[in-house]
Amino acid sequence: MTHNTDRNFSLFERARAVIPGGVNSPVRAFKAVGGTPRFIGRAQGAYMWDANGTRYIDYIGSWGPMILGHGHPAVLEAVQKAAVDGLSFGAPTEREVELAEAILELMPSMDMVRLVSSGTEAGMSAIRLARGATGRSKILKFEGCYHGHADALLVKAGSGLATFGNATSAGVPPEVVQHTLVLEYNNVVQLEEAFALHGRDLACLMMEPIAGNMNFVRASTEFTRRCRELCTEYGALLVYDEVMTGFRVALGGAQSVYAQQIPGFAPDITVMGKVIGGGMPLAAFGGRREVMEQLAPLGAVYQAGTLSGNPVATACGLATLHEIRKPGFYEALASSTRALVSGLEAAAADEGVPFCADSEGGMFGFFLLPELPQNYAEVMRTDGQRFNRLFHGLLERGVYLAPALYEAGFVSAAHTQDDIAATVAAAREVFKTL
Q1: What is the DSSP string of 166-203?
Q2: What CA–CA distance (Å, rounded) separates 50 from 189?
Q3: How many CB atoms lie within 10 A of CB 162?
Q4: CA nearest 410: which of 350, 353, 334?
Q5: Strand 217-218 versus strand 166-167 pairing type
Q6: Catalytic residues
Q7: Nearest Cα to 145, choosing from 384, 363, 412, 408?
Q8: Residue 218 forms beta bridges with which residues?
Q9: Partners of residue 286 on adjacent β-strands
Q10: Segment (H or E) for 85
Q11: Which residues does the record list as N6-(pyridoxal phosphate)lysine (modified residue) (predicted)?
Q12: Domains and their CATH numbers in the chain
């Protein structure tokens, strides 16, 4: 298709004239992989159609929320009814109470929850709450974990354990990140040394149980155990970022997976998003009652949001949670995801392409490496140019993966065995060219 007839290209040209980079979120620009981004016109089930009418099997799922697939009838009905009743009130509604109750029932580590509109908002609010509840300023995070674009979290590792991080974005003053310590993910020795140096000054440790912005890197059981133990020992709060994993890897989130391996395991604060909104802007953070009661209007930690608990978004989220609670839902979802991952591994092995993959529930990731990486430095060893060829080869064959080497993928309940088989067959063709 020439540029004259490619609506994706013409739309991108228009967009670049009025939107920085032509996109409203950077990874959509295809800058990492090259080429023209696809402008999506509609979606249904496991598929999306671009502005040219080309169909793709969708493994982005709006970056995770569309666990039921696009356009699920029960979700659409709930959203349409809510929209008729009113788009926003700026006042309490019964539905936000119902959604809060539903989340708390499924996440036993949380006694109370506050609804917000985005994962970034939830993450920054959780940090402010942790600082207010402990009276401490310093926070600890891990390189390669993403918790939204709040200033204090846009940080890369410093030069050593005694030094704090350096900003990774222009517009973030050094003094804003001077209290953020960045460590290597899955490094227990470094974690213990950091707590010995800074533990009494740490308000919180913030971590992703599965780092989805390193593609898919899961925290080891021992690393997770030590994070919990050290936070308890030094009086820091363990903030678990389940924006990506919450209700995506299991009905009780990743924390329920780790609780099976670590008796009594629970975070102090949990950050959630994506699936709880069913595809609409909605996120949340919650935790133990004594911590959450530090929030205004009960406590001195201020947090507010005009559209928090939006009545249409809460309707979408409630309908989604209702569907995923049905018996057998996660067993079927995990089975489909494992079939995809094992099929890709077999196809790559047959063609002699270095490849490894992992999955949990409906979330997966893969690397063009002989074995799974454990941290950001190991992830960076993967062959970016080869990944770009794989991405475009699959896109040309109607398979839409994340247009970046470092992003996890998502399978929905709408993906069929035929969709998985078609994806593996397309990958096999592309592997032959790598």
Answers
A1: EESSTT--HHHHTTEEEE-TT-HHHHHHHHHHHGGGEE
A2: 48
A3: 11
A4: 334
A5: unpaired
A6: 146, 241, 274
A7: 408
A8: 210
A9: 113, 270
A10: helix 73-85
A11: 274
A12: 3-71+327-433 (3.90.1150.10), 73-324 (3.40.640.10)
Q: Which pair of structure tokens corresponds to residue 30?
A: 């295809």
Both tokens of 387, joined, read 């990944």
Residue type, 269: I
Backbone angles phi, psi at 55, to 5 degrees: -95, 140
Sign of torsion over alpha carbons 403, 408, 409, 412: negative
Show the low-confidence residues of the chain (pLDDT under 50).
none
**Planar angle of CA 360, 366, 371, nearest 5 degrees:** 100
Enumerate the β-bridge partners of residue 238. Answer: 205
User: Contact, 39 vs 7, CB < 8 A?
Assistant: yes
Going by C-alpha positions, the residue among 271, 203, 211, 216 that lies closest to residue 241 is 271
* C-alpha separations of 193 from 1, 22, 187, 237, 250 in Å: 57, 44, 10, 18, 32
Beta strands 283-287 and 112-116: pairing type? antiparallel
Q: Looking at 197-267, which runs of residues are DSSP E strands? A: 202-207, 210-211, 217-218, 237-242
- Would you say 338 and 360 are in contact if contact means Cβ atoms under 8 Å apart? no
Buried b (16+ CB within 10 A) or exposed e, 188-225: eeebeebbeebbeebbbbbbbbbbbbbbbbbbeeebbb
Q: How much is the pTM?
A: 0.96
Tell me the C-alpha distance between 161 and 183, whole Å.
8
